[in-house]
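In this supplementary section we document a worked example of the pipeline. Step one takes a protein sequence of length 322 as its only input; no multiple sequence alignment statistics are reported here. Step two produces a three-dimensional model, which step three serialises into structure tokens for compact storage. The input and output of this example are shown verbatim.
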Amino acid sequence: MNFKRKLLLAPVFLLFSTLSFSQKVVLNETPDGVDFSINGQTVLTYQKSKVPVPEGIKEAFSKSGFIHPLTSPSGQVLTRIQPKDHYHHYGIWGPWTRATIDGREVDFWNLGDGKGRVDFSHVISKKQAGGAAELNVRQNHYDLKAPESQKIAIEEDLRIKVKPADKGRYMVDYTSTISTKNPGGILLDDYRYGGGLGFRATEVWGSDNSVILTSEGKDRKNADSSEAKWVIITGETNAPEGTSGLLILSHNTNKAHPEPLRVWPEENYDRKGNVFVEFTPIRHESWEILPNKKYSLKYRMIVFDGTMSAEEAEAYWRAFVK
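The serialised model returned by step three reads:
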């Protein structure tokens, strides 16, 4: 039986877990980032300082304002940053790719172009209560070609909340609220990449040892450009169960919900290290951001060891939107 079939037929219960539902999440801020820990184990880090790039790589690719590492309950690292094929990929993040500002095209995603970027600005608040922990930060989207007084094109307030879940899993709420002071507003142009929530998976995963499943029953072969309420990404790890993964949920109040996906297809990205999934609300239609008005996108991630069934994913989604 091949690996993918094993994953699809695997039982939905977990044999082992290092985290329990009764445990509390603890926040620890350092000069470089903010760690979320459960039972003394760091499960997620939000990066405040720019991560240096490898020698010989353009400094513009150095970036802050993203999640990495994100680990499974047993400590398996599920994210990746600065892969050699895409140095601008950073774990879990969501910059807009094509935007029109005052008639000029601005790209906040492809850092090497030098047109735009997104970086951490400051911590707004931190909170620990009820077993959960929450971080609110400001991220600035810079229009690098604009006059100095207009360089901050978009202000983003990002809320990250972590709490234990059932079956030894844990959940991450990721809420992005954006606004602009630009008098003419901003048009987030329709494109296959941009905004939402992007996930660059561990270099261990490829088409031979990972599985993607959407709420509409699509897999990596046909999920790209489709619309979904949720997507599960599962792959081989050193967890006791042999696999780990995460479920990403899109809230039904999000722009263009059920939300379009960008999923790297196997025919172009079949080797290990090339699993990328993103909810992309502007994939099929542009989005006008009016001045001094706030727009929010809400996502939830359930991080697990072992496997997750479609029925479980649907139940998590219903609880999220309710």
